[in-house]
Specification:
By secondary structure, the protein is an alpha/beta fold. About 55% of the residues lie in helices and about 15% in strands.
Length: about 425
């Protein structure tokens, strides 16, 4: 069994492909169980965000796990393969450390990915697919990410996706204070984005969600109002900026809906920011006049601005990560010796128990205790030394010198003339 990670991210795959391999939260537990139950995978955890889908597993057959990813999403393996990175052992460890530390994110140093890692661990625990190896990897990952953030400036002046959305709006409109903003969805990303927009005091903030309870919570916090998804058709036109991020598997805003809203607005322009993966807004909407449509990848380009301070911290972060990768691989190598060490101890324990039983039997017959103890120690010594002595006596010329060196090292023998 070996540690293996594979996946695709914003660097290796376009948004059109990434949205086809997203795992939604409500299906993730079953997906993990499916992977472990049907394939030669001992442990598994999946991280699925708007920028990446990655599988970490403990398996002897990584290719089977990669084929599972394609099969699960009803895609052809050859369609995914050119976009997948495949990371065995130490490369998987380093990748996990870099991702959790914000070095592999669309926004360098962004902190949200660490929380997403922790969510992935909790889900794997719930699914029963998190074992000793992956648990150790992720606990070390959290420790490394904490060290990188506390010992470097990697998180300084970070431009988040949420703040990038505000920057974008300020480039298109003279002032957000005159605009009506509609937020579709009620998850963490919407809450973060609403916080940044709220600081600019837009004219009105509206929250739409499938269930009103969560939307109501946000509306109360930001002094806005709530609507349901059924109200979108009639309410789109009264908003200037639309920010959408739901967990829907299909677009919830189509070209026809926007065309109707534009007519009602007398073609006053829309700014639509789609932060969802899969996307909430049909791609055809971007071709309409008077519509500025931006996806999560578009915002990533804006969020990369102002990297100088954070980039100078990357070298420091990489040093921390390299050291920790070495430490983890040492633990992994030592762990691989456990079966051999256990077998060696079991063999010694069997010999000890056997000789103790013989000694107790002799004592029970009334034999002299001193002679019994001497025989016990003599028999144990012979049994413990039989295997190395036999190996040395029967070694060929090529192996003998190496075996002698190893035995001297194992038993700490001094050379005698």
């Amino acid at each position: 069994m070996q540690l293996f990670a594979f996946g695709m991210n914003h660097e290796t795959a376009p948004l059109t492909l990434r949205e086809q391999v997203v795992f939604h939260a409500e299906n993730l537990v079953q997906a993990l169980r499916d992977l472990v139950d049907r394939h030669p995978v001992k442990e598994a955890a999946i991280i699925s965000t708007c920028n990446r889908t990655e599988v970490y597993c403990h398996t002897e057959e990584p290719w089977q796990a990669m084929h599972w990813l394609a099969d699960y999403h009803q895609l052809k393996a050859q369609h995914l393969e050119p976009h997948l990175y495949k990371l065995p052992q130490d490369r998987a460890v380093k990748h996990a450390f870099r991702v959790a530390s914000g070095l592999d994110s669309m926004v360098l140093g962004e902190p949200q990915i660490l929380g997403q890692f922790k969510d992935a661990v909790r889900t794997a625990e719930q699914a029963g697919t998190l074992g000793l190896l992956l648990n150790k990897l992720f606990q070390r990952t959290f420790s490394v990410a904490k060290a990188v953030r506390s010992e470097t400036e990697i998180g300084a002046s970070t431009v988040s996706m949420a703040s990038a959305a505000v920057r974008l709006a300020e480039r298109i409109y003279p002032g957000i204070g005159e605009q009506n903003v509609l937020f579709i969805g009620a998850g963490e990303m919407i809450e973060l984005t609403a916080t940044h927009f709220g600081a600019r005091h837009p004219r009105h903030m509206t929250f739409a969600n499938r269930t009103l309870e969560r939307a109501q919570h946000l509306a109360e916090r930001f002094r806005g109002r709530t609507i349901t998804f059924n109200d979108l058709a009639s309410q789109l036109a009264v908003h200037d900026i639309i920010v959408s991020c739901t967990a829907s598997t299909l677009p919830i805003i189509g070209k026809g809906l926007i065309e109707s809203a534009l007519r009602a607005r007398k073609h006053r322009p829309f700014l639509i920011i789609d932060l969802a993966v899969p996307r909430d807004v049909e791609a055809e909407v971007g071709a309409l006049d008077d519509v500025f449509l931006y996806s999560v990848d578009d915002l990533g380009n804006i969020a990369r601005e102002g990297l100088d301070m954070r980039e100078s911290a990357v070298a420091q972060a990489e040093v921390i990560i390299e050291t920790q990768v070495g430490d983890f691989m040492q633990w992994l190598e030592n762990r691989e010796l456990v079966p051999t060490i256990r077998a060696l101890r079991d063999e010694a324990e069997r010999a000890r128990r056997h000789e103790v039983v013989r000694a107790l039997r002799r004592l029970g017959r009334g034999d002299d205790a001193q002679k019994v103890l001497e025989q016990l120690s003599y028999s144990l010594t012979n049994k413990f030394l039989h295997a190395p002595t036999h190996a040395l006596n029967h070694a060929n010329d090529d192996d003998r010198e190496q075996l002698v060196t190893m035995l001297r090292r194992l038993y700490q023998l001094k050379r005698t003339e």
